[in-house]
């Protein structure tokens, strides 16, 4: 029994060079809303008013070359088409026994993943 860590994970943090531009990309391309923010340091991204992740201003090359977490969707094909229609280069959809997923890069080259888990 783990007494120190509880679920779920409370959020993810990614680092970007231009915080204001990255926020626009995440909101326009992925449909997030901008929560609390200070474009000199951080920005909170939300979905339906619920916290999802933070973007922090990077002072170097902090990009995530591989996805470190995944967003969830109920329809992988529609989500894939939605993101692709916004001009984002996406990988092929990978089908596994319990889920399907695909990856793509944000405007700073951070790799992101979206998954649909089967029930």
From TrEMBL:
Domain VOC: from-to ranges: 8-117
Gene3D superfamilies given in the database record: 2,3-Dihydroxybiphenyl 1,2-Dioxygenase, domain 1
Organism: Paenibacillus woosongensis
Record InterPro entries: Glyas_Bleomycin-R_OHBP_Dase (IPR029068), Glyas_Fos-R_dOase_dom (IPR004360), VOC_core (IPR037523)
Protein name: VOC domain-containing protein
